[in-house]
Design brief:
single chain; alpha/beta; three-stranded parallel beta sheet; three-stranded antiparallel beta sheet; 9 helices; 14% strand
Length: 315
């Protein structure tokens, strides 16, 4: 399969320095592999979306010379695909309605003597896995206690290694971070596919979109590494191929936390695009741009230098 990569920002504000690192890395990876690079606006979480942010992001990418090979797509126009995927999971007995509120989940965990780590999402205890017990349905969840074999050819054998049917540990390989493993049922539990407010969950939308767009390689920030096991589990449940994954280093603020829109990261200044790109290139371990180079020359030099010592190139 031909290499297809993508950059998939959420329009909750313009790009910041950290998001440009992921955009540049995904663009370079596609160009170095002689493949296609797409842009997808992930706007299914409509309450968090900022009007005009999608167009601001596209302008910033264009100013930096990061132009997609096809017109961008918006997740908000693709909800029929998500509904079809959920119907498929329900028909296979892999998804079920859940009537639990957050307080219900917290009470169930407390009754089991369980809490949650600071900043971590609570593990769903499976309360509605075998029925609503009189509660009205609120959301739909994926059963993570069922190991369904992969029914589609994987793009990368290490990334699509079979789930251990005894321990249910899912193994995959990250092109930068190396071997990874997670027991999704134990770590996360049955996760949400369709939210109580009627919005589609990120995990389902991203899996359906990547498959529909033929994405062979996902290059994104290291903060999303923990999502990978859930997404591979969903890919297998839906009979979809598993892409290769590469998670890039994070840009951190003065307090050591990941730079993000949620913690007040400043909008990226692309009035001088080469300066912004050079900062992103340093994070990725790439050499400095040649003195006097314009953006196209700098990008071409970084393509030749990609992927560098920290990354395993895509075949």
């Amino acid at each position: 399969m031909r290499y297809t990569g993508r950059f998939a920002p959420s329009p909750t504000g313009p790009l910041h320095a950290g998001s440009l690192v992921a955009a540049l890395a995904s663009w370079l990876d596609a160009r170095a592999a002689g493949g296609r690079w797409l842009v997808r606006i992930e706007d299914v979480d409509t309450p968090r979306c900022v009007p005009g942010a999608d167009q601001a992001i596209l302008r910033q990418l264009a100013q930096c010379g990061l132009l997609p090979d096809a017109p961008p797509v918006w997740q908000s126009t693709r909800v029929a695909l998500y509904r079809r995927a959920l119907d498929h999971l329900v028909a296979d007995g892999l998804a079920y309605p859940c009537g639990c509120s957050r307080s219900d989940i917290a009470a169930a965990l407390a009754a089991q003597g369980l809490g949650r780590a600071r900043h971590a999402a609570a593990r769903y205890p499976g309360t509605c896995r075998h029925g609503l017990n009189g509660k009205a349905p609120r959301a739909w969840r994926l059963r993570t206690d069922i190991c369904k074999p992969n029914t589609a050819p994987a793009l990368d054998k290490p990334a699509a290694a079979a789930i251990n049917t005894v321990a249910k540990i899912l193994h995959w390989n990250d092109r930068r971070l190396g071997p990874q493993a997670q027991d999704v049922d134990a770590a996360v539990g049955d996760f949400v596919l369709l939210r109580a407010d009627g919005l589609w969950a990120y995990q389902l939308a991203v899996v359906v979109d990547d498959a529909d767009q033929g994405v062979s390689d996902v290059v994104r920030g290291e903060d999303l590494t923990d999502n990978t096991a859930r997404q591979i589990l969903l890919q297998r449940a839906l009979g979809l191929p598993t892409p290769r994954y590469l998670h890039t280093p994070l840009v951190r603020g003065a307090n050591g936390e990941k730079l993000s829109k949620q913690n007040g990261a400043a909008a990226l200044d692309t009035a001088q695009p080469l300066r912004a790109l050079a900062a992103a290139a340093r994070v990725l371990g790439l050499p400095a741009a040649a003195p006097g180079a314009a953006v196209p020359e700098a990008l071409a030099a970084w393509v030749r230098a990609w992927p560098g010592a920290l990354y395993n190139p895509a075949p």
